[in-house]
Amino acid sequence: MADSANAQASRHLTIAAILASGLLAAPAALAVPSYARQTGMACEACHTVFPELTHFGRVFKANGYVLSNLKRVRDVSGKKEQLLDLAQFPPLSIMVMISYADMKKTVPDLSNAGAPGVAQNGTAGFPQQLSLFYAGEIAPHFGAQFQLTYSNSSGTIGIDNSDLRFADMALLPDNGILTYGLSLNNNPTVEDLWNSTPAWGFPYAASNATVSPLATTAINGPFAQSVAGLTGYIFWNESLYLEAGGYRSAKQGSTNELTGGAGPLDGTSDNVLQGLAPYWRAAYEYNWDRHSLEVGVYGFDVKVYPGAASGTPLTGPTNEFNDVAEDFQYEFIGDEHIFSVAGTHIHESMTLDASVATGASANRSDSLTTNELHATYYYRRRIGGTLAYFSTTGSTDTGLYPATPTGAAGVVTSANGSPDTRGWIAEVNYLPWLNVKVSAQYTWYSRFNGAGSNYDGVGRNASDNNTMFLLLWFAY
Amino acid sequence: MRNVNLRQAIARQPTRLLRTVLSLAVVAALATAVWADEPDADARAYAKKVAIGTCGTCHGRDGNSTQPKFPRLAGQRPTYLVTQLKGFRAQTRGDPDAISYMWGMASQLDDTTMETLAAYYATQAAQVSPGGDAALVARGREIYEHGVAAQGVPACSACHGADAHGQQDFPRLAGQHAQYALKQLASFQSSMRNVAVMHGVAQNLHRDDMQAVAAYLEAQP
After folding, report:
1. Residue A286 near chain B (CB below 8 Å)
2. Chain B within 8 Å of A333 (Cβ-Cβ)?
3. Higher-scoring residue by pLDDT: A3, A368
4. Which of A370, A392, B42, B140 is the most buried (most CB within 10 A)?
5. What is the DSSP letter of B175?
6. pLDDT of B36
7. Domain containing A54: what range?
8. Chain B residue closest to A72 (CA)?
């Protein structure tokens, strides 16, 4: 009985759950020593402390990850045409995250729901994540950061954040420069250059053995690795950055019953994008002395067929998520002291024609707003920490953020239909070497899925989801 | 150029007459060499693109870097730049930022590219920095022009020129970031940047004197 109630709840939760999946999947951040081998430059050229980028790191990325100081293997034709230009070593790296996560109050044991059983608290992740990178140049003007990740939550290896780039530059009058390029990637904002936007924003690593809130905006991870996007960008004088492009569904592990192949997608797939979802970005960065300041805007407008999520075909009404966001990042990079602060404000307007029709949402129109702000300090790139504030607030929708069904366990529900969640993250880090980080992170929730206390209607408080997360994170 | 090493050797001869005579001979030889080996337009265009598009990210597109971690190269003497680039390539210049950044960046540069890069920066106009603390600059000027006799520190101007624009193989220092100049003096003192002459100059220089000299240099046009 309790099991079926939870199953029913999970069916209703599908839209919210897909939108929360970005939080459930711990962000797999960038820290790739193959770039150091390729450029011959130390981590500090591109990173304050990984994965946060410096101005040089941003320019390296905008130029397609191709700057190389390795010996070459070449082939040229009799007409001096360049046929091949390979570095002598492939830009491969490995990254490992080993973790331990402990919640303030563990969650009910669903195998024993209805009885007082609880799940074991304190989850060891060995590894939580293990990634293999191809990160560096492929050919002149053509580079990639491809990431394959084994995750302990899936127990399998799958594609992670990936970005394939073509880039070149043109000299302008008065020593000006115009960098331009194309990015083919699988997560909106993974192509971005700053650590204020979702894909490379804080937290850079988080537990995958804890509870995540119901709501997150469409640009904040839900479509990571299930879309393919092509964007074009210019970076004028390494200051003004403009980018535009679109994304289309690129499902992993989904097959068409008739063809037996990866497509065409049909109603057996969840949350398939209608057509092309536009993505846009504008930012300006100003550098002076040891300071760097960026302000920008970005957005994503995606129309989604719920498909299998609500048993509907990939025709007819869609759910639209229109995200418009602002962001900023400030960095001070001294030899001893490094300080940065970054934040973003994302506003999402939802038009839920598909979900209203199936009862999966109560309202046709909802909104959701996310604020994130983090400040980081490091001493000599060796010891430091980050303090972050996060909040998500939005329309009350008892369909989108459903209450706990009678007899069910709660925890991932909202008694009042509100998505409101807010809290703090504090993290301390020690780096014995620049490619090895030891972290202790604590997440406090003052509000979770709509309330501070008894948010699920069956007695769980927001603070019960507070999580201590210990992490050994290294890359080679 | 083939004559650089000879020219360097000559520049360090103590005898003024010998130095003058040989320098004239070398200048003539160098002029011939430049005429014969002058990089073609393609090489210069390539160097300009590298300087603006790659080096410029740190050093400024015209060599006037805004970040004090990275030295200003505009108006720098080309022979000095080539010597440094070769030192990075050979991994013989060992101050921390040289190791972290320039050993890699210079590792695959050929001599022609080094020379054309150096020529690009030598022809860029050096921007004037705003002056720092007046008392500190005045103290720095005293040391620059007269040295610190009690500590056996010679006058900087003897080699780097009265206007700090450098001469022969001695680098231009005028307008350099004070923070960069200070770090170099400390690196000479500790021999992380292993230059015997400058180690001799800096070995007895006190930290506050280094700061004063660095402030003076940054303020020079």
Report:
1. no
2. yes
3. A368
4. B140
5. T
6. 47
7. 2-71+85-475
8. B108
CATH of the domain at A285: 2.40.160
Which is higher by pLDDT, B14 or A148? Answer: A148
DSSP A34-94: HHHHHH---HHHHBSSTTSB-HHHHHHHHTTS----S-EEEEE-TT--EEEEEESS--EEE
Total domains in the fold of chain A: 1
Inter-chain CB proximity B107 and A171 less than 8 Å: no
Q: Does A59 touch chain B (CB under 8 A)?
A: yes
Task: List pLDDT tens digits, range B101-150.
Answer: 999 999 999 999 999 999 999 999 999 988 789 999 999 999 999 999 99
Residues 17-56 of A with CB under 8 A from B: 39-42, 44-45, 55-56
| Per-residue pLDDT reduced to its tens digit, A213-260 | 999 999 999 999 999 999 999 999 999 999 999 999 999 998 999 999
Note the helical H segments in B51-171: 56-59, 78-89, 96-97, 103-105, 111-122, 134-146, 157-160
Tell me the C-alpha distance between A430 and B18, whole Å: 59
Tokens in use for B92?
Answer: 């013989």
Q: Is residue A462 part of a domain?
A: yes
Contacts of A71 in chain B (CB under 8 A): 108
Number of A/B CB contacts below 8 angstroms equals: 58
Residue range A89-102, pLDDT digits in tens: 899 999 999 999 99
Read off φ and ψ for residue A143, nearest 5 degrees.
Answer: -145, 175
Amino acid code (one letter) for A393: T
Give the tens place of pLDDT for each residue, B59-102: 999 999 999 999 999 999 999 999 999 999 999 999 999 999 99
Q: Which residues from chain A sit within 8 angstroms of residue B64, using beta carbons?
A: none
Question: Residue A233 pairs with which residues in a beta bridge?
Answer: A181, A243
Average pLDDT over residues A51-65: 97
Q: Which two tokens mark A192?
A: 């971005």
Q: Of B55, B79, B61, B63, nearest to B170 (Cα)?
A: B79
Contacts of A175 in chain B (CB under 8 A): 52, 56, 61-62
Rounded to an integer, what distance in angstroms lies between the CA atom of residue B191 and that of residue B206?
15
ipTM rounded to 2 decimals: 0.88
Across the interface, whether the CB atoms of A175 and B61 are under 8 A apart is answered yes
Q: Which residues of A touch B177 (CB under 8 A)?
A: none
The 10s digit of each residue's pLDDT in B197-217 is 999 999 999 999 999 999 999
Check CB contact under 8 Å for B49 and A287. no
In a domain, A210, yes or no: yes
B52: nearest CB among A42, A70, A171: A171
Query: Percent of chain A beyond pLDDT 90?
Result: 86
Averaged confidence pLDDT in chain A: 92
CA distances from B187 to A165, A296, A333, B94 (A): 40, 40, 20, 9
What pTM does this model have? 0.90
Question: In this predicted structure, what is the pLDDT of residue B18?
Answer: 45
Say yes or no: A243 contacts chain B, CB-CB below 8 A. no
Chain B residues within 8 A of A333 when measuring between CB atoms: 69
Nearest-Cα distance to chain A for B80, in Å, is 22
- Closest Cβ opposite residue A290 in set B48, B56, B68: B68
> Is A42 in contact with B56 (Cβ distance < 8 A)?
no
Contact (Cβ atoms closer than 8 angstroms) between residue A445 and residue A422 = yes
**Which residue of B48, B49, B67, B183 to mutate against A (max A Cβ within 10 Å)?**
B67
* Residue A16 within a domain: yes
Residues B105, A69: C-beta atoms closer than 8 Å: yes
